[in-house]
Amino acid sequence: MTFTPEEERFTDVMAQFTAYFGKHLPDDVMEKLKRLREEQTSDIARLIYDAMFEDLAMAAERDVPCCQDTGVIQYYVRLGADFPVRNGLEACLREAVRRATTSAPLRHNAVQIFDEKNTGDNVGVRIPWIDLELVPDSDECTIYGYMAGGGCSLPGAAKVLMPVEGYEAIVEFVFDTICERGVNACPPLLLGIGIAGSVDVAATLAKRALMRPAGSHIDNARGAEFERMLAEGLDRLDIGPGGLTGRKTVMGVNVEVAARHPSCLAVSVQTGCWAHRRAAIRFKSDLSFEVLTHKGALC
Would you indicate the residue range of the signal peptide (predicted)? Predict the structure, then answer.
């Protein structure tokens, strides 16, 4: 496919951006991991955190991904209605993934359903996944990139509850999911929880919630208290780093919501592992950009 000069510029930056966030964790996650390391009281927990930071240092030094599982690439896009790269956006992002796969390099993780063949370039049917929100009266574009690894995807779950079960049932579902599967996601975890009227909406919101910084809160007083209470309760499980016990379980609990039907209450849980490869970049109309999650990145 032939790109316009603007599309080529956009694709090149996104390829660099995608390769970069596979090697460097966002600033908020790094700070959270440092604080959690300081709270540990057992030798095994301290040892695991030390291994995490040694891994991150080696990845930066050698310019390679910090985890061998670089996941399935997902982009969460807030697209201004007047942003110059619109028609070619999907093609540009698919090409950016191909280029990043070679340059980073990224592990080949796109397996075609039914054919059961790996595409070899991390591009497949509807992959990279592109979640699109249109922003009226804007000529900017903000893109959250995410590497959905196998471990952090395994605990993903959703359920429609009877409304009479209430928020207590949401809490029970979250705890059951984390107690049963959370260890697979390489704790400490960042939890994304979606609450809506159907599982498709709840699951989408739960994944969007993972794009928020660790320690942030929903813009609703009751919702923010719900996040804090869930985090406090999950931390009392003391699953610890790597699931091998230790202080705390989560880096944070992020909840996103949508109004529901009166007869339905749906919940979804999505998890991010300790190596939470999430990043955000904002383009202006002239395609100048700023990486929002990693101070000084790609300057």
Answer: none
